[in-house]
Design goal:
CATH architecture of the largest domain: 2-Layer Sandwich
Largest sheet: 5 strands, antiparallel
Strand content: 15-25%
CATH class of the largest domain: Alpha Beta
Distance between the termini: 136 Å
Radius of gyration: 52 Å
Mean pLDDT: 78
CATH topology of the largest domain: Alpha-Beta Plaits
Number of strands: 7
Structural class: alpha+beta
Order of helices and strands: HHEEEHEEEE
Helix content: 40-55%
Shape: rod-shaped
Number of domains: 2
Length: 218
C-alpha cells in the first residue's frame, strides 16, 4: 500500500474559489446598485410629493372657486324665493280686486237732486303685521273686509226722505249688490247742519257706511 503526500504552498489570498461569482466584485456592485435604488426610490417619492402638492394646490383653488359659486347660488336662490313670494303676493291682490267703477258710475241714478256728497272714501283696512321670523308671502287670511264711507248733506223740503231713499237704494238696488253687501247710517251720523247758523237749519248732514263684499285672496 502506497501513500501520497500533498504539499500546499499557496497563501490564503492567493487561493481562487471554484464559484464563478467573486465576492470582491459583487460586494461593490451590490453597494452601487443599492445606492442607485435608494436614489431612484427617493426621486420617485419626491416626484410623488411634488405631484400631491400640486394636486392639493389645484384642489384648494377649485374649492375657493366653488365656495364663491356656492355663495352666488345661495344668493340667487334667496332672490328667486323673494321674487316668487312677491309674484305670489301680487297674484293674491290681483285676484282680490273689487270693481268699484261700474257700481259708482250708477250712483248718480239713485242720488236725489237735493243730496250733495262731500266725501266718498274707502277706509284703509288695518295693516298686516307679519311674523318677523317668517318671510312675508302675502296675506295670511283668505279674505279682507272692505267698506265704503259716504258723507254729504241734504236740503230742500224733505231731506230726511231723500237720505233714506238713497240708503234704501244702496242697500237693496241690484245695481250695487255685486259691490255693497249692506248699508247703514251710524248712530248720531244724521244731524242738523249748524255750521253756518240758522240760515241752513233745514240742511241735514249724514254719513252712510257701506259694508262691501270682502276681498278674497285665493
Amino acid at each position: 500500500m502506497s501513500a501520497s503526500l500533498h504539499l500546499d504552498l499557496l497563501n490564503d489570498d492567493e487561493r481562487f474559489s471554484s464559484s464563478p461569482i467573486r465576492l470582491r466584485v459583487m460586494v461593490p456592485l451590490m453597494g452601487f446598485l443599492l445606492v442607485i435604488g435608494t436614489l431612484f426610490g427617493w426621486s420617485f417619492l419626491a416626484f410623488q410629493a411634488h405631484a400631491l402638492s400640486t394636486q392639493k394646490t389645484t384642489v384648494e383653488t377649485d374649492i375657493t372657486g366653488l365656495k364663491s359659486a356656492h355663495a352666488e347660488i345661495l344668493r340667487l336662490r334667496q332672490q328667486e324665493k323673494e321674487m316668487a313670494a312677491s309674484l305670489k303676493q301680487l297674484a293674491f291682490y290681483r285676484s282680490s280686486q273689487l270693481k268699484f267703477g261700474a257700481s259708482l258710475a250708477r250712483l248718480p241714478e239713485v242720488v236725489p237732486a237735493n243730496v250733495q256728497f262731500t266725501e266718498m272714501r274707502v277706509p284703509t283696512p288695518p295693516p298686516f303685521m307679519p311674523d318677523p321670523k317668517t318671510p312675508n308671502l302675502g296675506p295670511t287670511n283668505t279674505f279682507e273686509s272692505v267698506s265704503l264711507r259716504l258723507a254729504g248733506k241734504a236740503g230742500g223740503d224733505r231731506p230726511t226722505d231723500a237720505v233714506n231713499g238713497l240708503l234704501k237704494a244702496l242697500d237693496n238696488n241690484p245695481a250695487f249688490s255685486n259691490l255693497i253687501h249692506h248699508a247703514e247710517i251710524p248712530k248720531g251720523a244724521f244731524r242738523q247742519d249748524t255750521a253756518r247758523g240758522a240760515v241752513n237749519r233745514d240742511t241735514l248732514l249724514f254719513e252712510i257706511n257701506c259694508t262691501c263684499q270682502p276681498r278674497r285672496f285665493q
